[in-house]
Amino acid sequence: MVGEQGRVTGTVGPGLVGEVIVRVRGGAEAFLAYAMEEGERLERGTVVVIVEYQPPRTVYVAAAYG
């Protein structure tokens, strides 16, 4: 899971629990998402990389580009 890319479907940011869609096992699954960098805000549509995974459905993400 760590190192996989996904797309933000619910804004990730301070005080928010965001959502990311990630391709898993030939399909797509939604995960609760938090920004890896404190204070960072990631808007819907942003491509992210998973930096940390906490089972069963929580990921910490960073912007994949930029």
Rounded mean pLDDT is 96
Please work out how many helical segments DSSP would assign.
0
Largest sheet: 5 strands, mixed, barrel
- Tell me, what's the shape? globular
End-to-end Cα distance: 21 Å
Radius of gyration: 10 Å
Order of helical and strand elements: EEEEE
Explain this structure:
The protein is mainly beta and 66 residues long. It is 0% helix and 55% strand. The chain is globular and about 30 Å long. It contains no helices and 5 strands. The model has no long low-confidence stretch (mean pLDDT 96).
Keywords:
single chain, 66 residues, globular
Give a nutshell description of this structure.
The chain is an all-beta fold.
Itemize the secondary structure elements and their pairings.
Blueprint: E1 5-10, E2 18-24, E3 27-35, E4 47-54, E5 58-63
